[in-house]
Each structure stands twice: as structure tokens, then as C-alpha cells.
Structure prediction request, 224 residues.
Amino acid sequence: ETGVTQSPTHLIKTRGQQVTLRCSSQSGHNTVSWYQQALGQGPQFIFQYYREEENGRGNFPPRFSGLQFPNYSSELNVNALELDDSALYLCASSSGQGSPDTQYFGPGTRLTVL
Amino acid sequence: GQSLEQPSEVTAVEGAIVQINCTYQTSGFYGLSWYQQHDGGAPTFLSYNALDGLEETGRFSSFLSRSDSYGYLLLQELQMKDSASYFCAVRDESGDKIIFGKGTRLHILP
Prediction:
């Protein structure tokens, strides 16, 4: 069974640029959630995808967008990067809309915006 | 809205027992989850309580009291590798997303 993977591991961008982060869900999981985690804080929910549809969104502006593909992998896109977007971005997969409490996290992408 | 409160830091001695508390406010309650995160690592699911009472998984136990909007994580026979941050989490009222607390950093002394 393959776990959740994310790419890239680290990324450095400058303010105003755009970034795409990728996530492959654990085998058999059809739900992917994205989180932003600032240093010393808990993960903050960005949005969730269930069977290729956005299924919930946190308090993030529209410049944070995402996709889920038929194989349940997912992308997080952030446009017009700001300094405050520097954080660890985590994706987590789970096995169904009815059981989002047990989530399996990927190792994260560390984004630095200069 | 939802909010969770947990202590920012807890210190305990190797081999001892430690309890990490979590109080929550949510308009719709589905259950309380606990996650562990080591420095530089990803959160790892530890336990989930939907009903009142104690759930035991090896050295870790989790307790829930829905009437008190309170739960705790109990770690027994502490080991140095248990040094990590611990997060409690609940679903929001829609049930579609999980809200995490700010985390409790556990320091273990030899």
C-alpha cells in the first residue's frame, strides 16, 4: 500500500509568482484535503476534494485553488504569492466522505516566498 | 464557529504518564481526533472518539466527555520518541472539514 506523497519537498518563490503543489493520495482513498501550517501552529484547512469535486473550503482567498484528478491525485495552486503564504503545505487523504476524521498526511511541501 | 483550546506546552519525565487536555466549542459535534507531529514531519493520526469514554491503543489512550466538551490524550510509559506536538481536532458543523487546535508541544526529560 503506497502512502501519501507530495512534490516538491521544498520550493522557493518570489512575491507575485504562482505555484502548483502536487499530492498523490493513499491507495484506495478518494478524498483529499489540503492544509496550510505556519510554524508553531496547527494545520489550517484550505479545501477538500471528494471524487473530483470541491467539498468544503476554509477561510482562504480565491487565489488558492485546486483540482482532483480521476486517479484521486490532487493539485493546489496559489496565485499572486504573498510573503504570508510561506508555510508547510500538507495534503491528507481519507477513504470516504463519511470518514474524514482519520486522515493520512503526506510529508508536506515547504514553501518559502521571498 | 468552532474553537479548540489545548495547552501550548507540557513537560514530563521519561517513563511517567502525561495527560494533554483539549476543550472544544462547536455547533455540531461529530467526534474528537488526536494527531501527533514530530518536528519536520507530517501529522500522524492517533485516535478518534465519537462517544463518551476511554479508547485505548497501546500506550496511548484518549478520553471524551461530550457533556463537558472536553477530551484528553493520555500517554503512558513515556519514551523520548514521544517528544512531539499533539493536536486535537474536530469536524466543523458541515462535517466536511477538520479544524485543528494550535497544538501542545510535549517535552520529555530523561
About this structure: The two ends of chain B are 41 Å apart (CA to CA).
